[in-house]
Amino acid sequence: MGHKTFDRGIHPSYYKELTSSMRVETAALPKTVIIPLQQHAGAPCQPLVKKGDAVQEGQKIGDVQAFVSAPVHSSINGKVKDVDLAEHPNGSRVLSVIIDGDGTSREWKAGGAPMDTSALTPEFIRDTIRDAGIVGMGGAAFPTSVKLAPPKGKAIDTVLLNGCECEPFLTADHRIMIEETDKVVWGLRALMKATGAANGLIGVEENKPDAVEALKKAAGGHSDIRIIVTETKYPQGAEKMLIKAALNRKVPTGRLPLDVGVVVNNVGTAAAIFEAINHKKPLIERIVTVSGNGIKEPKNLKVRIGTTFEEVINQCGGLAGDAEMEVLNGGPMMGVAQTTLTVPVLKGTSGITVLTAASIKPLKYDPCIRCASCVEVCPMALMPYRLGDYGRTARVAEFKDWAGLSCIECGCCAYVCPSKRPLLQWIRVGKLRVRIEAARAKK
Amino acid sequence: MTDKTTENTETKAASAAGPKAEKLIVSSSPHFLNTESVPKIMHTVVMALFPAVAASVYFFGFRALLLVLVCVASCMLSEYWMQKIRKKPVTVYDGSAIITGMLLALTLPPSFPVFGAFLGSFFAIVVGKQLFGGLGFNIFNPALLGRAFMQATYPVLITTWTSPRTVGHAVDAVSAATPLALMKFEGKLTPLMDLFVGNVAGSMGETSVIAILLGGLYLRYKGYINWKLPLGYLGSMAVVGGAFWLADPARYPSPLFHLFAGGAMLGAWFMVTDMVTSPVTPLGQWIFVVLGGAMAVIIRLLGGLPEGVMYSILFMNAFVPLLNKHTRPKVFGEIKTEQS
Question: What is the distance between the alpha carbons of residues A410 and A240, in angstroms, rounded to a whole number?
Fold first, then answer.
């Protein structure tokens, strides 16, 4: 130990060895892609193409005049088959552009050395990032350009890159840090330039020594960039937990990292920024870890956005057996279970985890025995057993009073509960009830 | 992407997307959990009580074993019977009733009547646990409540002690006073080594410090007890007992005597640490053990009874809901000036 970290949290089994040493493979060009017009937090895009239109790889096909949003681009050359509602990994149906590919692809390369970040203006960097449709690639998919435009009077002193990757199974960020180290460091410098931050930090858990080594080497020439090695602990990659570990600052309840002078971005996002500025390449593909005990050949794959889960899984040997499985968009702690495999890979899909029925949680639960495990692990210092009961029994006032809205939904409480109570599920219900009540009060 | 916030249980995929799609399971995150379970915890506690049971059999003979078996059987039967009446799932084998039976037996004098032990166990489970709603809902430690009941119903028998077989008298056990009673009523102190090993008169499982420590440390090793509960309770006893001792060493026993005599060890390692009836917040746990330990010593030295561990824990049990409510930890990032 002795590495920086936050208080509480858990040490789940990580199973990273399934894919952590596997080089990223490029997935086969998909025949059809489904590109949802909402892949990010914020306003959904309006379609810029219609059925029958020919589209080019990298062409903008959806955008909107809203501050908190990000455009979407076609990830292949082809023809628009339809613009219609389609299944989305979040469980809803979202307006999507469905494109039939013509089997061709283009190169995204620029001759010569990468640009000098100090020669770029903050406005240029921000605009390029927005135009390239870059969003947080760690999973939350918050539009990156928005983070780089803080309100007046808020100074950013530090850009913190998140390379913790604390979710079990996932190794996409790990591979990016090893295989695209220079891009990550360059992206960090661009982010520092865009925000005027004097310090750049990269937080990595100590279970990725090869990534730490590579980053240290790549950042060696920059005295203003430091690599922070954190303890391997879940949820170290949660924004607030990483800021606490790296800078010993606490983001106040209901505030954002920029309120404590920090902008946090995923390492994959930094690499995408490099490509957007140097190769003029929008965010049309990403690295996805396909893993879990329900996958025949776990892999790290570079996948075009909009490729269906089915196609991705088939390139990894398919599902292991015909038994019941759970297919997740993300890892086992925070991932969302899918009802169909026709859903597309999104900008925020860091992994596809497939778990067999035997390895997922039971549906039966016992009474709470007040063992205090959930209280001892909650990184936000909440009392999950209580919040769960308030959510389940619709005691909205108490739910709010006991800070239920501060829950970051990491799932530590449910993970450790010996009674196997679905605490996080109940807390989500509580949050939903608070929102419903607030909506009613407005009317 | 935010999670779907609906109350989903297991729902099979509705759409037939591919040949395999009908076999998808959908549940809410987190999707995999650790391997702990209530029966696993309870059975580990049962294991941890074996050294104390073995010591009681060694010192007090077959009768000790008989009382343990009677109490465990009575607790399990009562649990089964009450769960049937309440039309609840029968969870007799989860181990919690076995713990209550074992703990209750260990607090009894070896000569205690079998029927009394049966009745006390019945009371512990029915009134102490099931009437509150069963496991997880009881306010008081069921075993201690059962013992308090017997203290009221069998006031003489429950304070009639025999010396252990290992104290070289005749074959028949003779009636003897406990170290705490000797201290309180006769001003005699028992050697610490006898207390540590358990070679003294007293409740069956309370006499051997070393047997209880073995079990307690095993539980700590397994991660099922928070170190601050037993150590805080014993520490508080030592500090308060030590204050009396420093004030008047001739009249009051040393802190070590307090820790090694009577039910201090069994209470600290197995009753204060009862998950259901102890607080969940760090501050609440400190208040619980510090006041509990202090009260045990005060009852011992100033009260009418020679032993105060049982009542100190029962008394503090009553405050647990209040402690949980008013000692909530400060939420990460909570702003100090904010009124909650």
Answer: 12
Q: What is the rounded distance in angstroms from the CA atom of residue B103 to the CA atom of residue B72?
A: 9
Residues from chain B contacting residue A89 (CB–CB below 8 Å): 1
Interface of A with B in 234-293 (CB under 8 A): 240, 244, 250-253, 255
pLDDT in tens, chain A (443 residues): 468 899 999 999 999 999 988 899 999 999 999 999 999 888 899 999 999 999 999 999 999 988 889 999 999 999 999 999 999 998 899 999 999 999 888 888 877 778 888 888 989 999 999 999 999 998 788 999 998 888 888 889 999 999 999 999 999 999 999 999 999 999 999 999 999 899 999 999 999 999 999 999 988 888 889 999 999 999 999 999 999 999 999 999 888 899 999 999 999 999 999 999 999 999 999 999 999 998 999 999 999 999 999 999 999 998 888 888 899 999 999 999 999 999 999 999 999 999 988 888 777 899 999 999 999 999 999 999 999 999 999 999 999 999 999 999 999 999 999 999 999 999 999 999 999 999 998 87
Q: Which residue has the tokens 């941890």?
A: B48
Domain ranges of chain B: 38-326
B327 touches chain A (CB under 8 A): no
Q: Which residues of A touch B20 (CB under 8 A)?
A: 319, 322, 325, 341
| Alpha-carbon gap, residue A320 to B237, rounded angstroms | 59
Rounded Cα distance between B18 and A210, Å, is 39
ipTM of the complex: 0.85
The predicted model scores a pTM of: 0.88
Fold of B38-326: Ammonium transporter fold (1.10.3430)
What are the structural domains of chain A?
Answer: 16-20+113-278 (3.40.50.11540), 373-442 (no CATH)
| In contact, A324 and A354? CB cutoff 8 Å | no
